[in-house]
Structure formats: structure tokens, C-alpha cells
Amino acid sequence: MARVAAVTGNEAVAEALRQINPDVCAAYPITPQTELMQRFSSFVANGKVDTEIILVESEHSAMSACVGAAAAGGRVATATCGPGLALMWEMLYVASGMRLPIVMAVVNRSLSAPLNIHGDHSDAMGARDSGWIQLWSENAQEAYDNTIQAFRIAEHLDIRLPVMVCMDGFIISHSIARIDYLEDDPVKNFVADYKSVYPLLDLDNPKSFGPLILTDKYHEYKRAQHEVMTRVKDVVLTVASDFEKMSGRKYELFETYRLDDAEIGIVILNSAAGTAKDVVDSFRERGVKAGLLKPRLFRPFPYEEYAQALQRLKAVAVLDRSDSFGGYGPVFMEICSALYPLAQRPAAVNKIYGLGGRDFLPQHAAEVFAELEEIARTGRVKTTKEYIGVKE
Amino acid sequence: MAVQINLKELSKKELMLSPGHRLCAGCTAPIIAKMVLLAAADYPVVANSPTGCLEVSTCISDYTAWKVPWIHTAFENAGATLSGVETMYRAWKRKGKIDKEVKFIAIGGDGGTYDIGLQSLSGAMERGHDLLYVCYDNGAYMNTGIQRSSATPLGADTTTSPAGTAVPGKVQRRKDLTRIMAAHNIPYAAQAAPSHWQDFLKKVKKALEIKGPKFINVISPCNRGWRSRLDDAIQLSRLAVQTCYWPLYEVAEGATKVTYKPREKKPIEEFLKVQGRFKHLFTPENEWIIKKFQQDIDQEWERLLQEESQSS
User: Fold this and answer.
1) Residue B62, preceding bond cis, omega within 30 degrees?
2) Tell me: the pLDDT tens digits for B244-275?
3) Residue A95 and residue A79: Cα distance in Å, rounded?
4) Is B90 on the interface with A (CB under 8 A)?
5) Is A84 exposed, middle or buried (0-12, 13-18, 19+ CB in 10 A)?
6) Domains of chain A
7) What is the full DSSP assignment across B2-45?
8) What is the rounded CA–CA span in Å between residue A25 and residue A39?
9) Is-cis flag, bond preceding A113, omega within 30?
């Protein structure tokens, strides 16, 4: 029997980590991730896990210690957000370049300046080129489920790459929601024991980790990283299928909502997708063929599948909760890249919303759908990129 | 505890840093690394280096000079990286996945230790990881081409503190990292020199027998950066000790002991004059720098002796 609880997103991820019981966690406190590691620390303090926790003096050291621990050969997890993820940036590349299956909860937070502790996606989007797999989560349930699946994906022998599991800071991390927990044993069996292929702590077979690589080999090394990324989506689907057998909950590369026969659609990540789904319903009630796509696997980005899902739309709006200043929003850029090879493709617009935790309200989604109706009718896009929900 | 060094026994041990690495001729870093590994030869060792001369020259894909498990991840994080490795070892030991008594040793240069890696090192020391951090201090960023670091001595001519007509080289004195480490109240902090190899090896052996975080700072003459003779590394190390520029001492469980007292403290000029990086100091207008240099050394030596007398 599953356990039903009312918990915050942070608590849900901490519970997943308790059930997985990693060998080592290294973490540094930062709002809004703090509660997650506090809860995990109390599991350590009360003997609920065997994990050795390293309470480091910075996020750079948190990721460095995770890299050291994962290279040593065991299972490793951490959590961070916003500026903490930014401080880890150098070490993110080291973790993926060394093919270390670290799992990290990212409680999405904005970046300074000005200082803001609330939720947006600037942090993880800034890390999208770092060689980490990214899973995004709409709510606490998805964050919990994705965390459990992340270990299987990361540690898969064909993959051996780090995974970040993203959920919205405060909106999800600090809101209490209903969750179906799995029992401990099925989770333990699902993730199973982890065995590193090349542990540094294999004392009888000494290895050197982290060599200098010159111009003669670096390029090939990076191509190998690209190639392993192309294998990730199949593993994500296999793991999701196994997870569905255990939990009854279905996960794919992305979620579509009333998209099959839709003429206009919104692409939107994480918690705001929940709000937008309600607005899809209200447009459907008025006879408008509206739909929604919520990405789950953002890195690697499965371009062909996205193109297939969106190709029948007349107009699509991609909503980004972060900006690439001077460019389009990061999700929009990917969706356009996915759609470009199609002979017939929907008109596309990019809306930047919700930065620094600004509320995303149903009326915002309704305004976007109304604009999409107009674009679908006329075939004309007035403004490609625009901020919405702005106080003028 | 009395630690004995037997040269005959040591000579039978395998060197765990193999020849064929790409460090410069006359470099002291591999001498120091080999001495550390020799002193640790009775244990299984996992080694770690931050980015730097030793790291880039000993493991260039697909070759490695390291015969012990070794890891490098970045420049500023040897303390944190080795903390992670050591913690995984403890996690596995508790679970019965490993039973050997493993020693964890970081060997990093002064740039990665005094400067960019100081926070990471301080964190590792404060958290009490069971590891030994050895700094080979050549007094500048030699790997990137002799830029000044906080370990660079007063007056030294480096590529970023060049001796010019307006500024006579580095205008600040060096940071006293050994004292900073001792101030973490770790069980063992020491300063050593490869010229005084018995003293150095004893310190490494002693450190390895102590549980918890340990730090040893070792002077590492660099002929490229010090503008000295190719074959002078050990002689320069000896002069550094004999002039008390580099006092040999240890702080064990809070007690300071000066492990070598020169019968006659040589004037600092003897250390400075054989190095091109101090050549410009031997002019009338820069005489004051040599005076200041000597004053700093005298003060520090007195302070150390006083600290020792208060410890006993």
C-alpha cells in the first residue's frame, strides 16, 4: 500500500533520498533548498540512513566533494539552487566529464543581481550545456518520482552521467501538497545496489582520475560525451516503464495535455504547467482546440519527439521562466530548433514570465492563448519575444 | 612519539611516482612528492593534486606517473575533493565494503593552497577529515608562468609583480599559511624542507600516524621562477632553512617545536643573492627591502622560539 501524505516538495525529495540511502551527501545550505538538506540531516542524525554527510563550506566544495566521493566509487547525492548552482558551475562540467552518476535536486531559484531568492529557471538553464541530464518536475509528486528514477538513469552502465532533478523554488519546494509515497523496499529494489565500474578506492588496481588532455584527444573525448547523451532518452523511457510497473504512474520524455487534436498550444515547464492546464480546459469548454506540452527531459533534448508532438499546431507559444538576455528564452530556442526541419511548422512566439517568483496566473495563460488564436487565424506574428505579467 | 627513519630500509621501497613525468629539469616538486610517498610506503595511499605544475606534468592522457590511486578535479578544491574521497572510504568502511587502513594525501602547490584553494582547505581541516595535505611552496604561480601568489616573498620579481622603475617587485610579505593551518587547532601542522630529508620524512610519518586533518608546508625551490641554477634546488632549500627564511617546526596537539635550529643563522642575503628574482634588491635604492626582509625573518624566528618555550 502506498502511503499518502501532505508534504512540501523539499520534504518529498528528502524522503526519496532517505529511501535511496546514498553512501555520501555533500551539501551547503541555500534558500529555498535548505529545508531539503535539513530534513535529510535529521535522517542522518537519527540513524534513518547510513549516509555520511559532508557539510561543506560552499557549493563549489559541495560539488567537489561529490565528485571525489563519486569517483571513489559509491552512490552520491546533493541539492542546491540559484547562486549555489552558479558557484558549482566549473565542477558540473568536471562531474559529467568524469562520467560520475551524481544525483542533484535543483530547487529552481533566480540569479542575482538584484538579489532574489524566489523561483525561476535561470539557474538550471545556465547549466544546460554542462553535460548533466535534466529532469523537470511540475509538483512534489513528480519531484519525488523523478528523484527515484534519476538514480537508475544516472547509474545505468550505458550512461554514467550526473542528473539534476528540477522543481520550482517556494512554489513547489515550500507548498504542501498531497503525495503518494512508495514503500521503502520497492524503492530500494528499484534503485538496487550501485557498483562503480572504476572505483578510485580499488586499491589493488590503482587508477588516475582527471588527467590533462591536450589537443590530440580532447575533441574526441567531448564527442564521446555527446554520443552518450544520445543514448539517454531510451534509458529514460526504459526506467520510466519500470517505474510505472512499480508505481502505476506514467512518465515519458514530456507530458502532453489535450494536444493530440489541438490547433494552438503552449509549451511550459514545471509548476506553471499546472496553472496553464486549467486554462486549456476553459478554452476547450469554449470550443477552442487548445493544448499543452510540458517538457520533462530537457537535457538531452529529444528534438524529433518534440517536433512530432507539436507539428500539427497552427501556433505555439513557448513560455520561458528565464531569459537568455539578448537572445530568445532557452526553451523557445530548443522548440524552434526542433520545429525547423518540418516542411510545415506552427508559427511560434516566446513569452518570458514569472522571473524571480512573480506569480503566473490563469489570466496570463488566457492572454497567451487568445493571442495564439489570433496568430492561428491570421498567420501573423507581431512580436516574437515578449515579457508577460509585467507591471507597467 | 619517536619516528625512526632508516635510509637502508627506505632504499628498498618502490618509488610510487615513476620517472618519465614532464616536470622541468631541477624541479623540486617530484622530489617532495616521492619523499612523501616513500614515507607513506607502509600504507595503501590515495593521492590527490589540485591543478598545478605537479598535476599537469604527471598525468597527461594516456600516461600517468602515479602508481597509487590518484585524482585531480580542479585548481581550488583539493581539500573538498579529498574530503569526498575520504568520506566515501569511511562510508564503505562502516558498511564493511573495505577493511584496509588507507591514508589520504593531497599534494598541491602554493597557488592552489595559499590562494584559490584556501577556503576548500580550511573547510576540510575544520571538518576534521582524516587526511594529510602537503603544500609544495615554490612561491608563485609557476605553472602559468611565474605570477605572484600570496606565498611570494617580499621584493620578488615575478611576471605580475615585475621589478620596475616605479615598483621594486612584490611589495607585500608572504602569507604565513603554516600558522593559519595551526590556528585551525588541527592535531598536526608542520613546516619542512627537502634538504632536511630526515626531518621531512619523520614529519610525514608522524602525521600519517595521527587521526584527523594534518598539514605540512614544504619549501620547493623552482629554478625557472627563482632564476637560479638548474642543480641548486636542494642547496637553496638548505639556505632557506639556515637563514631561518623557512624555519623547520611542527605544531603537534598545540605544542610548538622547532625541529632544527641553525648553529649560526645566516644573513638573508645568502639566500637572496643566488636567485635572479631578487637581483634588483642589491642596489642602493632597494637596500631597505633586504633590511625589511631580515627584520621580518628575525621577528618571526623570535616569535617561533618564544612560542616553543611557552609550549614546553
Assistant:
1) yes
2) 999 999 999 999 999 999 999 999 999 999 99
3) 14
4) yes
5) buried
6) 3-247 (3.40.50.970), 256-387 (3.40.50.920)
7) -----HHHHHTSPPSB-TT--PPTT-SHHHHHHHHHHHTTTS-E
8) 13
9) yes
Q: What is the DSSP string of B169-212?
A: S--SPPP-HHHHHHTTT-SEEEEE-TTSHHHHHHHHHHHHTSSS
The domains of chain B, with CATH numbers, are 7-311 (3.40.50.970)
Q: Which of A178, A186, A191 is nearest to A141 (CA)?
A: A178
Residue for grid cell 499546431: A313
For A163-187, the pLDDT digits (tens) are 999 999 999 999 999 999 999 999 9
**B122 close contact with A: CB closer than 8 A:** yes
Neighbouring-strand partners of residue B168: B163
Tell me if residue B92 falls in helix, strand or coil. helix
Angle separating helix axes A34-45 and A9-20, nearest 10 degrees? 40
Q: Is B91 on the interface with A (CB under 8 A)?
A: yes
Over the Cα atoms of chain A, what is R_g? 21
Q: Report which secondary-structure segment, H or E, holds B299.
A: helix B287-311
Contact residues, chain A, for B74 at CB < 8 Å = 64, 90-91, 94
Who among A90, A210, A217 is closest to B72 (CB)? Answer: A210
pLDDT in tens, B95-125: 999 999 999 999 999 999 999 999 999 999 9
ipTM score of complex: 0.97
| A47 contact residues in B (CB cutoff 8 A) | none
Which residues are within 8 A (CB) of B24 and not within 5 positions of it... i.e. 6 or more apart?
B53, B222, B223, B224
